[in-house]
Amino acid sequence: MFLTFKDISVFVKKNFRRSNPGKPGIFFLHGFGGSSGDWEEIISLLGSDFQLIAIDLPGFGKSSKPDNTKFYQTKFLVQLISDISCRLKLTGVVLTGYSMGGRLALQFANKYPGKIKALILESSSPGLKTKLEQKVRRKYDADLISFIKNNTLIDFFTFWQNQLLFASQKNLPQKKQISTLKKKTRSNSKTGLSNSLRCFGQGEMKNLWCALPEIKIPTLLLSGSLDAKYTAIQNEMETLFPNSIHKIIEDAGHNLHLEKPKVFVNLIREFLQTLK
Length: 276
Fold this sequence. Notes:
This protein is of the alpha/beta class. It is about 40% helix and about 15% strand.
């Protein structure tokens, strides 16, 4: 289904009816270059035990890919999550985000902690700590934007997936690797990718490290043992969140729900059991 917000269309994938609101709800947010389709296997494994919703953020998937950069900024994206929840009459959902989607979920929890029941943050971060780190990241993202402009989407995603961060995905079956690359190429545009980097890249994101002690809702942090960078980040996050637990999935890298979907789902189920 599509919902319209301020002249843009947002694709929403859901597996529940408004007349059956009693089941726990999970709201999934994809990472950079992703879409709601990235969660299909996870949604299938979770089945009908939950109300499940996933969206294509502006600039990605089937949603609008506007030129206007205001639709990619933190303020708009946070309000978008709130408006979708209101329109679908979602209450007490578990907001779940991967990488960039995790950053958005955390920004939402910081502004609207009372609107969600819990957080699940997969391979995510509260932001860069120093102005210098942010400046370096903005320069890196500017170079990426230039690369996107001057190359094909296949070229970009081939480059993107060859980063050390995603090296463990080389262990996936070749068919799954090819399918993932094709999906990203089909569901993206140069405009959406560039504007997302420009407005919601890590160099532009508000640093929330100091805000973590004030976010008291139950939080599950997930990282892969092969992703040393984000495992270290989430170890530190666990010490600052008042009500969090960090689970490390063995033999997995950055994208846990792609590499270890069954383990990922089992950890979600275990976490949700603790919320009752």
